[in-house]
Amino acid sequence: MGYSVTSSSAVSTHSIASVIVAVIEGRGFARGEVGMASIDLKNPEVVLSQFADNTTYTKVITKLRILTPLEIIMSNTACDSGNATKLYTLIAENFKNVTFTTVQRKYFNETKGLEYIEQLCTPEFSTVLMEVQSKYYCLAAVAALLKYVEFIQNSVYAPKSLKIRFHGSEQTAMIDSTSALNLELITNNRDPRKGHTLFGILNYTKTPGGSRRLRSNILEPLIDADSINTRLDSVQELLQDEECFFGLQSVIARFLDTEQLLSVLVQIPKHDTVNASESKITNLIYLKHTLELVEPLKEALKSYKTPLLKAYYSSLEDSRKKEC
Predict the structure, then answer these.
(1) How would DSSP label each residue in 204-270?
(2) Going by DSSP bridges, is the β-strand pair 163-166/155-157 parallel, antiparallel, or unpaired?
(3) What is the pLDDT of residues 257-290, one digit of tens each?
(4) Which of 66, 171, 166, 72 is nearest to 121 (CA)?
(5) CA angle in degrees (0–180, nearest 5) for 234-318-119
(6) Dihedrals φ, ψ of 92, to 5°?
């Protein structure tokens, strides 16, 4: 397919990171307009973004630090030795322990990107088509990203199986990487292995997905007052009934990494092998375990009255679950 790896990361980074990101920049008069697409291999969700950046590419670097990518994909024309773009050079300088893979420019195809979204996006997230249909660079990025992921995973995604959303920055604050480091939001400056950080203090989450969400919210905190107040109302209600709170916590703690399970289930292997068959059986057992927890979770949520917790309860009423 014309892929080549230009650098490789340390083993310790690979054991943690699971996000692959494709980045492309406009050319000529469009230079500075950047499109990005990312997918977490442990979560069947694609996040798109497109924005105008400054000459130091602060937004790109900050977004990549939030994603902590396993691998970054760029076009071969941007990474040519002796003629590399400033964007590639800055990303390479800031992410020395991340694998870079170059892809032929033809795979950054906005038409193919739109086709991927139409084919793979779940109906609940289909409004993303209206948001991105004129955002050519993020469409080009998602085309290269999904083509590459299907290649390395040796599988294709099932139709209508991915959450695909466009991530604007209007409702969140962007904390630059230097500030995040100095404030020790995620990493302790003296000893990165220690949890003496804001994240370490707050992390009482019970699932891997909860931990990922907390990290994201620390690095990109909400600034929308209505959303913040909705969350605060839910926290207040949880604190008012200790028995219900611990009951809910107990049920949540029994869940596996649901996002990672879904990510595996929506991929269709290109070739049937013994290992693939064994994995299917194992994943079906995990899925059965997860579905058996839906009713206990509904029971734990049914007495809550705040809009956010009621919305979670209502989502568990989905009639499609009964078909399982």
Answers:
(1) --SSHHHHHHHHHHHHS-B--HHHHHHHHHHHHHHHH-HHHHHHHHHHHTT---HHHHHHHHTEEES
(2) unpaired
(3) 999 999 999 998 888 888 888 988 999 999 999 9
(4) 166
(5) 110
(6) -60, -35
| 76 in Cβ contact with 4 (< 8 Å) | yes
Q: What is the pLDDT of residues 308-321, one digit of tens each?
A: 999 999 999 876 65
Residue 278 corresponds to which tokens in the numbers above? 């064994």
Which pLDDT score is estimated for 14? 35
pTM: 0.82
With a cut of 70, which residues of the chain have pLDDT below it?
1-16, 169-170, 319-324
> Six-digit token pair at 124?
């609940």
Strand, coil or helix: what is 318? coil
Q: Report how far residue 34's alpha carbon sits from residue 288's, in angstroms, rounded to the nearest whole number.
A: 42
For the record, the structure tokens of 257 come out as 């990494």
Q: How many CB atoms lie within 10 A of CB 282?
A: 11
Task: Return the structure tokens found at 34.
Answer: 């950047």
Distance of alpha carbon 219 from alpha carbon 176, whole angstroms: 9
